[in-house]
Amino acid sequence: MKQDKQDRRSQRTQRLVNSAMMELIFEKQYDSISVQDILDRAGIGRSTFYTHYFDKEDVLTSIADQMLEMFGQQFSQRNVEQGLIPCLELFQHVQQNYHHFRSMLRGHAGEVLWEAAQTALSRTIEQALTNASVVKCPPAVPLPVVAQYLAGSFLNLLKWWLRAEMPYTPEHMERSFQQLALPGVWATVAEKCE
Description:
Layout: H1 8-27, H2 35-42, H3 46-52, H4 56-76, H5 87-96, H6 98-103, H7 107-131, H8 143-163, H9 170-189
């Protein structure tokens, strides 16, 4: 973003623009969204927009940054006993907001937002593993690799579930993920020191 002013008007403008962009992404492909579409939906003028953003890509980056911050705050409050990933909560959230998430599967905007989710989830998992008491010595597989693997596995399963139009309950998906991914991760990070 161009300016990082945090006064109320700037925050309000950013909320309006980000909200307008998200609404438009749910309605049509990112490539067909113009800055004028965003201006019309947000109810702001061109000069106000360009005071805060370079272009529509900058708006998308802002939304992705907000997602990162939100994920970071939510996940930082979890401990390892609660699980590395709040799988059930995320599956339930996606189910409740199915149409919004379904639209995120298509086009460039979806790629940017999923990549932001991958980054946030990986960071959170790595931090949780670093803080976990089960990691006694450096594991054979570095924690950043484990975190990327686990985040990628979860998000790919989530995408599949969305594309398949949620054939299983969130509870079933959470159990499946736990059974498939976590035993290997825990075995890797909890190896005995030589």
